[in-house]
Known about the structure:
Radius of gyration: 18 Å
Shape: extended
Number of domains: 1
Amino acid sequence: MNQNPPQQQINIELGEKEAEGIYSNLALISHSAAEFVFDFTRMVPGVPKARVYARIIMTPQHAKSLLAALRDNISKYENQFGEIKVHNDPLKGPRSIGFKTEEKKDDKSGQEPAKGV
């Protein structure tokens, strides 16, 4: 017998401050064996410094679920509005935001260096 358990409904509360949202045009991502760290920043043209406005830390399993949800939502968006054009795509060439990333681990924390998105 193949019965699916009933779906559990989750009530999510969205506070007034959180509902305003935070604009970010740069995400720095680093990870260790136990967690992924997402730092959301805002770059302003002509200003060589960026501030982190939000940091989200999650398990590798939740990070992979987030990736799947982003892929699904981007696919739906592009089906409705057309392909998203990415200028200075970090996956297709060198970054031009003023820092270099290295592929070696940070000796002190065991974390991979942050990569900009």
